[in-house]
Every structure is written in C-alpha cells, then in structure tokens.
Amino acid sequence: MKIGDPLDRSTDHGPQNHKAHLDKLLEYCQMGVKEGATLIYGGKQVQRAGFFFEPTVFTDVQDHMFIAKEESFGPVMIISKFRSGEVDDVLRRANATEYGLASGVFTRDISKALYVSERLNAGTVFVNTYNKTDVAAPFGGFKQSGFGKDLGQEALNEYLKTKAVTIEY
C-alpha cells in the first residue's frame, strides 16, 4: 500500500486530515494491542512531514474488542478467524455492529461471494479486492456510517428536487 501525496494517482492512502485523527489512530492501535489482538504490521506514524499513518494489520481480533466494533477511518485492517462453512455465523458477526460503510470478502467461491455480499449490511462490498472505487459507482454507508451517497447517480440525486404536477384544464 503506497502512502503519499493524495493527488498522485498511484497513492493508495494520503495523510490523515488533522493531528487529532492521527492521534485517534495511534490510540486505536494501542487499544487493539492492549486487548490482545496481534499487531502484524504498522500501527505508527510514518516518519515524514504530515499526518501520515502506516498501513496496519491486526490478527487474532475477537468480536468484543474495540478495534472490531469501531471504525478507524485509517489504513487499518483487522482479521478475525472463522470456521469454514459457517457463513451465516460470519454474517451475524459482521452485521453485529452499528456501522456499515464498507466490507471485504475474499473467496474463490463466487456463489459464496454473492451470497455474503447480498446479506452484509454495508453500503459497499468489495470482493477479492479492497477500496477499488469508480466515480460511476455510488459510495456510502448504512446504519451509523452516514446518510446518502458520494459518487455516481445517487450522489447527484442529493442536488435534485423531484416534483410531480398534476393538472386538469
């Protein structure tokens, strides 16, 4: 994951927009470690000018942990284990949060990907990729992850007023 200038099209993640958010990411990662998740990579500020944060990966994340329940809004991935074949239990766990901005499904089974995608309570579902967006596709969350959509026709609808006029003459 390339961290850098957000105006450079090859950049995957730019800086956080202010120091308070960078500090929040540092606390988020400290809480993950404190609660027993395994920090595999990252979790620190990038040593350069600006509020850049390292891509971060946690494993051994349990459902009750802070990092499993809260959105980081940073380059942080949490990985939780599940038993093969228990797809409905995975869906229950994934949907047991008050947020629903985006989710990712990685599988070789396209039928399973479609089954899970349809049932996830998230505004965007990425399959075998993550954070790959297109301006023609609407982007926005469900539940406490926002109202309305950015991008696509859905975003344009926010600026329109629909009116029905019926006249008999």
TrEMBL record:
Keywords attached to this entry: Oxidoreductase
Domain Aldehyde dehydrogenase: 1-165
Name of this protein: Cytosolic 10-formyltetrahydrofolate dehydrogenase-like
Single annotated GO MF: oxidoreductase activity, acting on the aldehyde or oxo group of donors, NAD or NADP as acceptor
InterPro entries hit by this protein: Ald_DH/histidinol_DH, Ald_DH_C, Ald_DH_N, Aldehyde_DH_dom
Keyword Oxidoreductase attached: yes
Transmembrane segments: none
UniProt keyword annotation of Oxidoreductase present: yes
Species the sequence originates in: Cyprinodon variegatus
Pfam families in the cross-refs: Aldedh
Domain of life: Eukaryota
SUPFAM superfamilies reported for this sequence: ALDH-like
